[in-house]
Amino acid sequence: MNKTNSLLLAGVLSATLMTSVNVNAAETAAPAAAPASPHTLTANIGFFTDYIFRGISYARERGSVQGGFDYSHASGLYAGVWGTNVSSDIYAINGNTLEVDLYGGYVHTINPDLSINVGVLQFYYPQNKKDGGLASSNTTELNAAVTYKFFTLKHSYVASKFFGFADSQGSGYTEFNVNYPVSQLAGLNLTAHVGHQFVAGTGVLTDGRSNSAYDYTDWQVGVNKDFSVASSAGWNAGLSYIDTNADSSLWVYNDGFKSGESKVLGYIKRTF
């Protein structure tokens, strides 16, 4: 073989080998990672010693099963549904035994420490039992909140009647919440809350007082812990002390149970 042919053959073999190596490398390379989905869907279920809403007991300390589904989008939009049992006592929610909350809104993160949240919350009672057959307990609230680190200030405005109260549109609830992670490693959190319920309107009670007689302030302090059970993550359990200055002559069940007095709430739940 002459020198020219040898050089030509070497060039061809070299090109073939390089092509072969490139093809094999392409065939064996790890596939590109799929882009993260902008959608998040979670579910939660919990067992509670009571259903306490804004300091008031609606399950008479007889236990409550609560759970729901939450959807969020990377844009900040979110929506969800949540449900709980309530006491069948006519006072609690006019004899209804099930509450379903439908909600949605938008969270805007200004920086890692600061965010704002606007939303709507619909309290819905499928049985639609009414106070004296006149007013539905179904209630619509608009809300806005600002969160800075561990602190959240929120106001909820009633755009409908307030749980069946006559002439009560414009009622509101203002609250301040603290959720402080004592130890991220241990999953231990401290919580504190204070809120004030204002019931609007000139509806008159049998003793001559207006809706404002139902105004009250509630407060709460508690501790909870995030943990795993074997390989099952997403668990949380907690204990809280809750009290109010609600008028016990008004916030009372038919059998005399005073729903606004001090109480201890315990629970265990899982999010997955």
Task: Explain what you see.
This protein is mainly beta. The protein has a single domain, classed as Beta Barrel (Porin), CATH 2.40.160.40. Helix content is 11%, strand content 51%. The chain has two helices and 16 strands. β2 and β3 form a beta hairpin.
Defining traits:
single chain; 272 residues; mainly beta; Porin; 12-stranded antiparallel beta barrel; two-stranded antiparallel sheet; 2 helices; 16 strands; globular
Could you give a short description of this structure?
By secondary structure, this protein is mainly β. The protein is built from two helices and 16 strands. It has one domain (39-271): Porin.
What secondary-structure arrangement, pairings included, does this model have?
Layout: H1 3-28, E1 39-48, E2 52-53, E3 56-57, E4 64-73, E5 77-85, H2 90-93, E6 98-111, E7 114-124, E8 130-131, E9 135-136, E10 139-148, E11 151-158, E12 172-183, E13 188-198, E14 216-229, E15 232-244, E16 263-271
Antiparallel strand pairs: 1-4, 1-16, 2-3, 4-5, 5-6, 6-7, 7-10, 8-9, 10-11, 11-12, 12-13, 13-14, 14-15, 15-16
Extract low-pLDDT stretches: 1-28
| Share of helical residues | 10-25%
Molecular shape? globular
Number of helical regions: 2
Helix and strand pattern: HEEEEEHEEEEEEEEEEE
Mean pLDDT: 88
Q: Please give the order of strands in the largest beta sheet.
A: 1-4-5-6-7-10-11-12-13-14-15-16
Find the count of extended strands (DSSP E, 2+ residues).
Answer: 16
